[in-house]
Amino acid sequence: MEPSISIRNLDLSFGAVSVLKDLNLDIGQGEFLVLLGSSGCGKSTLLNCIAGLLDITDGQIFIGGRNVTWEEPSKRGIGMVFQSYALYPQMTVEGNLTFGLKNAGVPKTEIAQRVARAAKILQIEPLLNRKPAALSGGQRQRVAIGRALVRDVDVFLFDEPLSNLDAKLRADLRVEIKQLHQTLDNTMIYVTHDQIEAMTLADRIAIMRGGLILQLGTPDEIYTRPANKYVAEFIGSPSMNFFDGHLDESGFTAKDINFTVDGYDFANGRKHGPAWFGIRPEHILTGAEAETRPVRLSGTADLVEPLGSDTLVRLRVGDRLIWVRMDGRSKPAIGDQIQIGFNPARASIFDKDSEERL
């Protein structure tokens, strides 16, 4: 099947500053792709290039098999939802939904049908006669999504649409956006710096840094087999614990802590030398369960964060701080000695210099 969107060798520079660097990306028909990264990584810039809001320096963009590299945004067959609601304050909700369609010369009967359909899907039918000032933040964002929805396009672009909302509204609207995608089955590209949004919404995630895509994969692939140390640190809260050590035929030995992990396969030319050993907080066990694991350590509770379902504990092990995710019923106190253990099969090993996964 031909990709819904194809990006070929895309470069974008502002003067001497290179912002996006030789990006190649195919997004499947009906796929929900999330562009994830910290501020300044280039994710919103890439979205704006796809939308036609920025002129690229080099490369090509195809939507539905058509080269749209230099086409106007209105001709690209996209609907865009911004971080800012950008609603017309003097118009009602219905007026905001119909404004673009009227300007495009869409017949009145079709406008009415599109608005009725979008209002039903987004559950904003009772709000059509209100003005934006009389709406909550979540309702305004629904209207902003509806304005894109009435365009009846194949591709929707979301630029951090939930970042202005409180935590409860974010969670509620996140569910609604996922259900919207399941209902419409349109191609959606979603920009966020929130890893929870990325992991729960995406079919695939593209993690960006410095204008490059560091890893492209399913949420499970990104979580279980991060391509490099940056991805491993970025995904997960708290992030992965790292031990600085050395890899050789006898396994992995961490400095100062002195444990060895056997079973690393050197038969395929894998690298010896300095390396990072990473294990996630949720893969570390405590108490009696720790005693059955190949790697066992002891640490002192340094910080305790009760979260209800979980309890996060920061342990001081030697000269390092290690995060452990414990059952919410656990009530450790500062200063407690806690035995921990883990299976190295759940871990990741990264080269010390390149930080790439080994």
Automatic annotation (TrEMBL):
It comes from the Bacteria. CDD domains: ABC_MalK_N. InterPro entries: AAA+_ATPase, ABC_transporter-like_ATP-bd, ABC_transporter-like_CS, ABC_transpr_MalK-like, ABC_transpr_MalK/UgpC-like, Mo/tungstate-bd_C_term_dom, NA-bd_OB-fold, P-loop_NTPase. Coiled coil: none annotated. Keywords: ATP-binding, Nucleotide-binding, Transport. GO terms for biological process: carbohydrate transport. Residues 5-235 form the ABC transporter domain. GO terms for cellular component: ATP-binding cassette (ABC) transporter complex, substrate-binding subunit-containing. GO terms for molecular function: ABC-type transporter activity; ATP binding; ATP hydrolysis activity. Belongs to the ABC transporter superfamily. This is ABC transporter ATP-binding protein. It comes from Paracoccus amoyensis.
